[in-house]
Structures are given as structure tokens and as C-alpha cells.
Design goal:
This protein is of the alpha+beta class and 138 residues long. Helices cover 17% and strands 26% of the residues. The chain has one domain.
Amino acid sequence: MPITTTREQRRQLERDNAKQPANLQPVPRESWPDISGMKKKPFSVWRSRDFLVQCYQEDDGITRLSVARTRLDPATGRWNEGISWDELQGIKREIGIGDCMAVEIYPADKDIVNVANMRHLWVLRDPLKFGWKKGGAT
């Protein structure tokens, strides 16, 4: 879903991004935008010059990270895409959960929701019995 912005708003976003630290920092709750209309509200928000990370507690107790870049693609009006595996692993580490296993879901076609260039990681309480482990896959 494109975000409608003026050229000045995009320039202001770039100036704001330049003021942010290189590493993710927690955003104080008083600096969050109004989230009263959101069905599910984040319990923490993190920001760097490159990424915005919102942390949600899911009904089953698993934490979901919603990750987006902080720059808009002027051609599409959407958040820039192309978040790499290394960047997602680094984001997980920077917010203090690098030791936890997380998964990214690729849903059935009938369940696809794609409204923004965001990536979602579900942080597991217990590691999966399969996956990459030091020394090779299981």
C-alpha cells in the first residue's frame, strides 16, 4: 500500500533518519505515534537510521517482530525493501534476543497479507528440534 507524501515530507524523513543512531535504540513510549486505534499494540519499539522494529506479544505468548526500513522508495511510495538475513539476525541481536531462535512464516496463498514492505519474525520460547545449529543442520 503506497504512502502518500510530499517531497518535503520525504526530505524531512531523510533528515530525521540522519539524526538517528546507527544501532537500534528503544523509542520512549511518549514518542510513539497514537496507537489507540490499533487492534494489537506493540509492547516496545526500536529505531535506528535504517530500521523500525515493533515488538508484539501474540496470543500464544510468542513475540513477533515487525521490521521495516525507514526510507521510502520514491518510485513506489512504499518502504524500501530488501532486508537481508544478516540484517534480520543483527536486529534480533541488537534488541537483546540474539540467543533466541526465530522463524519467518511463508503462509498459504489464502492467508497472505501484504500491505507494506515489512518482515516479521516470530521469536520462539523454545528452540525448534530442527534447524541450523553450530556444527550443521539437524
